[in-house]
Amino acid sequence: MTRASLDKQPHEVAAMFDGVAAKYDLTNDVLSLGQARLWRKAVTRAVAARPGERVLDLAAGTGTSSLPFAAAGAYVVPCDFSLGMLRVGKRRHPGLPLTAGDATRLPFADGVFDAVTISFGLRNVQDTDAALRELLRVTRPGGRVVICEFSHPTWAPLRTVYTEYLMRALPPVATAVSSNPDAYVYLAESIRAWPDQPGLAARLGEAGWAKVAWRDLSGGIVALHRGVKP
């Protein structure tokens, strides 16, 4: 699977991430020019996990994104459908309760989480709207969602430079540092095909989330969307 498609087959996407698991965190740091760590910090602040809260970290990969929530005293459940990612994560973070799960059919009861979050994984789900509804289902009333995802730069010159980087510079860089460079060609194309900030906000509202808002990071290269379960 090397081409972006609206018909994303879960087994193909899972296999793709299995193939990049070993060097995934390092590759992300390199390809984002160091911005990935800043984006993770922004997610941590937005989730604002408190001691004793239950936090679902969906598309958690190797579990790196879950560590700040655990450090804040929350009970965090890292969940991903790539077994390769989870195996790497279990070796690195044996204390985390890494869980295999499909975003469209989460293996959790209704209303069990105080906060749910997904970073850079929603656009790889086969049915985005089903995933947003599932996140709502497993969140308690008054609970919150935080979505961090690639988006559309709001400044035209930056948008042009960014698009050129995605399609021209990213593939050779990925070839140099990734264990599966073809996967990053797919990822670049999936970013271009993803809805803009208002588009994703509308889909959150349609899924049942209230008080939906977003904040641009890095000029809109990434957007942080938030909502509350009524």
Automatic annotation (TrEMBL):
Record-linked InterPro entries: SAM-dependent_MTases_sf (IPR029063), UbiE/COQ5_MeTrFase (IPR004033), UbiE/COQ5_MeTrFase_CS (IPR023576)
UniProt record, GO biological process: methylation
Catalytic activity: a 2-demethylmenaquinol + S-adenosyl-L-methionine = a menaquinol + S-adenosyl-L-homocysteine + H(+)
UniProtKB keywords: Menaquinone biosynthesis, Methyltransferase, S-adenosyl-L-methionine, Transferase
Entries under Pfam families matching the protein: Ubie_methyltran
Gene Ontology MF terms: demethylmenaquinone methyltransferase activity
E.C. numbers: 2.1.1.163
CDD domains, alphabetized: AdoMet_MTases
SUPFAM superfamilies named in the record: S-adenosyl-L-methionine-dependent methyltransferases
Pathway: Quinol/quinone metabolism; menaquinone biosynthesis; menaquinol from 1,4-dihydroxy-2-naphthoate: step 2/2
Residues reported to bind S-adenosyl-L-methionine: 62, 80, 102-103, 119
Source superkingdom: Bacteria
Described purpose of this protein according to its UniProt entry: Methyltransferase required for the conversion of demethylmenaquinol (DMKH2) to menaquinol (MKH2).
Similarity comment: Belongs to the class I-like SAM-binding methyltransferase superfamily. MenG/UbiE family.
Protein name, per record: Demethylmenaquinone methyltransferase
Organism: Streptomyces lonegramiae
Designated gene of the protein: menG
